[in-house]
Amino acid sequence: MEGIYFYWCAWVVWIYATFLMKKTKWRTALAAGVLLLMSGSIYHVGIGVFSLTYSFLFLFVAAFALTANGGKQLGYLFMAALAVAFLSAAFRLLALADPVWVWADERWMLAISMAAICLMLHRDSATRLFAAIIGSCQGEIVYAVAVRDVFPYTIGSLPFFDALALTCACLFVWSLFENMHHHVDAWQKQMKRNKPL
Q1: CA distances to 52, 105, 136, 196 from 60, in Å
Q2: Cβ neighbours of residue 93 under 8 Å, at least 6 residues apart?
Q3: What's the pTM value of the predicted model, to 2 decimals?
Q4: Minimal CA–CA distance to 30: which of 75, 69, 62?
Q5: In the predicted model, what is the mean pLDDT of the chain?
Q6: CA nearest 99: which of 91, 87, 89?
């Protein structure tokens, strides 16, 4: 079923933001943004010869707006996002031209590939996430331009959001493993302090 990974991950983020995060403006913006992404994923708008979902437009604009004050690292972020875009577009075009080499679910293979390139290019978790989002959106646009004369394609369709959600989930799990030693150390110190004599 198309969109299952996207909706599942989006609901997990929304539940976390709504019920588990501290009450801040960031929490409200995150929860509202996730709800806008989910609700706009089925509505389309035509721009020229292309059809885009409202969720794609919202995500693309929001990602650029959030990274606008990145300072010196902004150029590197966009170069890394371009690498992710080329990987995404090349993967999908190659899967379209020669589907034999896609031996597993295409969304999972694409997500793992994009997460791997983001992990190689960035150290910071937030920067990895923004590079994955911006690069995926750019790759989706390149793919839509490449296939526009072959068949009609909606930019920001549910398979795109599935692959992006899986990429973000892979990056989140990797970040948990990276930071696990901090949590284990804090837990051990807490256990030593509370140890009975």
Answers
A1: 11, 25, 9, 54
A2: 143, 146, 147
A3: 0.88
A4: 62
A5: 89
A6: 91
